[in-house]
Amino acid sequence: MVLQYKEYGDINLPLMVFIHGGGVSGWMWDKQVEYFSNYHCLVPDMPEHGKSSNEKLFTINLCAEKIIQLIEEKSKGKPVIAIGFSLGAQVLISILSMRPYLIDYAIINSALVRPIPFSKMLTKSLTLTYPLVKNKTFSKIQAKSMYIDENYFETYYQECCHLNKASFVRIMEENMAFKIPNNFKNSSSKILVTVGEKERSIMKKSLVDIVKSNSNCKGIILPKVGHGISLAKPDFFNKLIEDWVQNDILSDNNKEISCLYPN
């Protein structure tokens, strides 16, 4: 299996890899790719998503393995920065666990790492709502909750319609059963962990779990935003990444940081 991906920028510059969330694809990072034009940007579509929708069945570990292969092929000794959101953040945690020295900087945004009890039963109940995925009104409500603006709604809607029930169930089960791998503690990456203030409490508890699992982690809670900071506030998110990677600071005068968990 070969993941489909898009590549931008100068191949001689540091590599920046963007790993999208579940139910969307690489387009969610368009504002980031545009901003980080002074990097070599790599944006893969995960299995059963976007341009990789016809590839092998999605699992977090399989996706991590395939993105590792891409990074090893494209990095060629350059610094590597990796950013993952939601399901993609879980994939990034797996990558850091499988290859502790592969990535220099990692941004883990909104990763669930506390397995949800009775997740299989919950997933089965969610399949009852699956037909709503193809209902445009329902999709608009979902898109709004994820900060997807009207320019991307049609792409989002078409991808939702393309996702079959079996894929939906499999992806949900992977997401809700995920926990931090034991080897995550060995990652040498400089790791920034973020979550939105308006996200569920289990997401904030997951942030604390991640920070406690690796001494290289620093965690922040971002005020006045829910699940999807990169789409909700792309300018702020881009500056956050830039300041942290290039200057080792977390925000512009710390105005956007409501809670900081130190190393």
Automatic annotation (TrEMBL):
SUPFAM superfamilies on file: alpha/beta-Hydrolases
Gene3D superfamilies named among the record's database cross-references: alpha/beta hydrolase
Residues in AB hydrolase-1 domain copies: 16-238
Recorded GO MF terms: hydrolase activity
Keywords on record: Hydrolase
Chain segments annotated as transmembrane: none
Signal peptide span: none
Keyword Hydrolase on entry: yes
Entry protein name: Alpha/beta hydrolase
Organism field: Viridibacillus soli
